[in-house]
Amino acid sequence: MFEWDEHKNQLNIRKHGVSFSEAAADIGGKEKSVMNKDIEYTDAPEDIEESLARAAVVPNFGLTPEQVKEWADGRAKKPVSIYLSVETIEKFKSAAKKTGGHYQRMISDVLDTYTRQYL
Asked: 76: burial class by Cβ within 10 Å (0-12, 13-18, 19+)?
């Protein structure tokens, strides 16, 4: 059961400039009007050129942009069925769990790397 407290109502008016009854009548009104605005969110800093000038090159990142393109172009996949030892599958699953990856993709990457280097 709700009991009106005029003292608290007056404190709320002084503190927030709105009475409980006004607040109750407008629940969600102000928030809804803000939510309906088109707001553009970005993580880009104000001065992007300055940020790029301060950026550091990460050594041994892995692939150059050209290598990434070559890699992406050759990534067409075809499903196959193969038999692998339970031990091998469990090792890949464990590694994938630690890294947050996908064990089947890891197996595919190992086979692709081996093929490029040795076959």
From this structure: exposed
In sequence order, the 6+-apart residues with CB closer than 8 A to the CB of 89 are: 103
Largest CA distance in the chain: 85
Q: What is the 3-state secondary structure (H, E, C) of the chain?
A: CCCCCHHHHHHHHHHHCCCHHHHHHCCCHHHHHHHHCCCCCCCCCCCHHHHHHHCCCCCCCCCCHHHHHHHHHCCCCCCCCCCCCHHHHHHHHHHHHHHCCCHHHHHHHHHHHHHHHHC
Instruction: Give the Cα separation of 94 and 89 in Å (integer).
Output: 9
The predicted model scores a pTM of 0.38
What are the extents of the domains in the chain? 1-55, 61-118
Confidence category of residue 44, pLDDT binned at 50, 70, 90: low
In terms of residues, how long is the chain?
Answer: 119
